[in-house]
Amino acid sequence: MTLNACLTPFAESLRESLFDDADAPTALPAAQRIEFDHILHLRHAGETRCRLRAELVGAEGAPLVAVLGGISADRHLAANGACAAPGWWEAQVGEGRPVDTARLRVLSFDWLGADGGLDVPIDTADQADALLAVLDHLAIPRIEVLVGASYGAMVGLQFAARFPERIGELVALSGAHRPHPYASAWRAIQRKIVALGQLQCADAQGVALARQLAMLSYRAPEEFADRFAAEATVENGRVRVAAEDYLDSCGLRYAQKWQATAFLRLSESIDLHRVEASAIRIPLSLLAVEGDRLAPPEEIYALAEGCAADCRVRVLRSKYGHDAFLKEVDAIGEVLADALQDLVCREEDRA
Amino acid sequence: MTLNACLTPFAESLRESLFDDADAPTALPAAQRIEFDHILHLRHAGETRCRLRAELVGAEGAPLVAVLGGISADRHLAANGACAAPGWWEAQVGEGRPVDTARLRVLSFDWLGADGGLDVPIDTADQADALLAVLDHLAIPRIEVLVGASYGAMVGLQFAARFPERIGELVALSGAHRPHPYASAWRAIQRKIVALGQLQCADAQGVALARQLAMLSYRAPEEFADRFAAEATVENGRVRVAAEDYLDSCGLRYAQKWQATAFLRLSESIDLHRVEASAIRIPLSLLAVEGDRLAPPEEIYALAEGCAADCRVRVLRSKYGHDAFLKEVDAIGEVLADALQDLVCREEDRA
To answer: Same domain, yes or no, for A63 and A148?
Structure first.
């Protein structure tokens, strides 16, 4: 049985009813799903009761790794004993995978705002506070390594700057300490598209179209040149280009799962993100992707130059641009395995 | 008195009534504005009566240069005796400028579809046919040099492929023989934005937002990084990024002048464009701009490699990306002066 790997919190109640613990294959790693209310002091909205949702996989006592993805990702990284549906990062997380759930304890959480219930500006510092609340709730003293990709890298940087005593090392893939002004403009237009849809109560249509534009920013021209070289056609008196079927279907799938409010608030959140590079004092491992139009390598180099810690930068060339962390499975797997090697060895020595 | 340099055909009747021949300063070069109906065989709509509008500046007998700009450009390149309002390419066209109206006869025309009266697919071959009709109407046997920028370069390539006996040389700036699939996707989304606006009879709002997205494709991240580095702000509970005022004003100004139909049909026209490089057998001078996201240098190199003629390629690095032909006045002036030097010298010898 295959379920979509990117279910959002709205769809998760369905997923949980389909895959409760009793039905899960015994081979899947032990896991718990946590959900609780907590009052956070949001930067732009003050004291706010928020629903926090997390997932914790692997044996108690193993070194704790937190894994955070893009704004569309959720707490469910990979199939586990608490939820057998595929997660959004099956390629990297699981037994024998680079983020090895047999040797590590792996934590993730749903972004504040992802459930559409929080219609206020949210920023990455709020997300870092939410992660801290999850750690405290689970009585986890410290994240050994936080692996963050895209938005997860930004939240990881905020967490490192705010709570350095609660994190050992940060692996930040395709994310920087500030948004690039061109990428911000690109996102602002996506939000205006959603607003144009909302004007006529065509919310889903606006969200779908905004997602299409977002897809262009996640990918790079090389991939489009490979996949969509066919000539434009004329259908019913209108010109249609080769990428339109693909983009339409990306938009539709997304709009079935995401509410306008969640899209808008998480999109805004990227543009509110800003961390002083010099405030980062824990070891950093950064990945920059040539061709990434959202987190261009220059920005990641600026972060590396400005931070006050040991910092390693790797550069990857990928036709997938910003989405390389999802699409370049082997190269990203190497980065992760390398970053987690010491932890895994330490755990093997201990065991 | 200053009038907007980018008036479209809709606004030109107003401009003509403000600046008729009698009022024009005597120093402006002699010019005629031509307007006539002609039946064209449009590729996707068959025999169609079209209104053609052209402007011809300079002395009879001087070598004829045709100058064509982007989809938003029109026939009015620079102030002249028939229309004293500033044109869209004052920096390059006029007495003593690189396209020297004292030594050359300079022709331009309004794009088919720009007046919003033609709601059918239009392609660059149709535009080339329209240019031929203008030449025939004016009894001009041959264009010595055609200077085309952006869409004008595409139309120039079509003209060269279709009517090689009517053109001596083509200078094509920031345009290639085919659209890049990524740029086509970008335009398709602009058209979908217009359609979303039209759904609720908010045509102008859709056109304005589509133009904002188009602006991102015309420019490059470097310029945005220089101009819009300020942090995002929260206004009335919404996040606003630094480039939004600029983009909003670009969109508004554009939507005041352009109808949805004209925008859609000219945008489509770029995606229908395709010329076999090997069909180009006249001398070519190409300009590629590093950082151009619509006509990336690789595409222009592919054209240079595939064409069956003498071809010279220059490469310019510009933070203005595709808009370099408008913004890099000195560098573009050199390219034009160089390309037109032989013509000007020939004319001086004759005089």
So the answer is: yes
A263 vs A111: CA distance, rounded Å: 11
Same domain (yes/no): A197, A53:
no
Specify the residue for token string 């870092």: A128
B131 and B37 co-located in one domain = yes
B85 and B210 both lie in a single domain: no
Q: Where are the alpha helices (DSSP H) in chain A?
A: 9-18, 124-137, 151-162, 181-199, 203-218, 221-227, 244-257, 260-272, 297-306, 324-327, 329-350
Which chain B residues have a beta carbon less than 8 Å from that of A268? 232, 238-239
Give the distance from CA B309 to its chain's centroid. Answer: 24
- Report angle CA A252, A257, A262 to the nearest 5 degrees: 110
Are residue A139 and residue A64 in the same domain, yes or no?
A: yes
CA-based end-to-end distance of chain B: 35
Domain harbouring B211, CATH code: 1.10.1740.110
Distances in Å between the Cα of A4 and the Cα atoms of A76, A249, B9 are 12, 14, 51
- Taking CB atoms and an 8 Å limit, are A121 and B213 in contact across chains? no
B267 as an active site residue: the answer is: no
| Same domain flag for A111 and A45 | yes
Q: What is the ipTM score, two decimals? A: 0.90
CB contact under 8 A, B212 and A224: no
Q: How close A22 comes to chain B (CA, Å)?
A: 45
Q: How many domains does chain B have?
A: 2
Task: Tell me if residue A185 falls in helix, strand or coil.
Answer: helix
Q: Does residue B1 lie within any of the structural domains?
A: no
Mean pLDDT of the A340-344 span? 88
CA distance linking residue A181 with residue A224, whole number of Å:
24
Neighbours of A27 (CB within 10 A): 8
Q: Provide the pLDDT for residue B346.
A: 77
Tally of CA atoms within 13 A in the half-sphere of B196 that contains its CB? 30
Catalytic residues of A: 150, 292, 322
Which residue in A182, A199, A212 is closest to B200 by CB distance?
A: A199
Three-class DSSP category at B266: helix
Alpha helix (H) residue ranges in chain B: 9-18, 124-137, 151-162, 181-199, 203-218, 221-227, 244-257, 260-272, 297-306, 324-327, 329-350
Q: Name every chain A residue with its beta carbon within 8 A of the beta carbon of B234.
A: 44, 121, 272
Provide the pLDDT for residue B105.
Answer: 97
| Last residue of one domain, picked from the residues B269, B291, B312 | B269
Q: Provide the residue range defining the domain that includes A202.
A: 182-269
Instruction: Tell me how far apart the alpha carbons of residues B145 and B8 are, in angstroms, rounded to a whole number.
Output: 25
For residue A12, pLDDT over 50 is answered with no
**If we measure between CA atoms, which residue out of A296, A316, A314, A321 comes closest to residue A226?**
A321
B307 domain residue, yes or no: yes
Pick from B7, B168, B182: which is nearest to A246 by CA?
Answer: B182
Is B341 within a domain? yes
- The verdict on B78 and B175 lying in the same domain is yes
Mean pLDDT (chain A, rounded): 92
- By percentage, how much of chain B surpasses pLDDT 70? 92
Q: What is the CATH number of the domain that holds A314?
A: 3.40.50.1820
- B183: nearest Cα among B73, B113, B267, B263: B267
Within-domain flag for A3: no
One-letter amino acid of B313: V
Residue B127 burial class via C-beta count within 10 angstroms: exposed 0-12, middle 13-18, buried 19 and up: buried
Distance CA B278, CA B304 (A): 10
Place of tokens 């200053």: B2
- Check whether residue B305 and residue B263 sit in a common domain: no
Taking residue B235's Cβ as centre, other Cβ atoms within 10 Å add up to 9
Could you say which of A220, A253, A269 is where a domain stops? A269
Span B71-80, mean pLDDT? Answer: 97
pLDDT of residue A351: 65
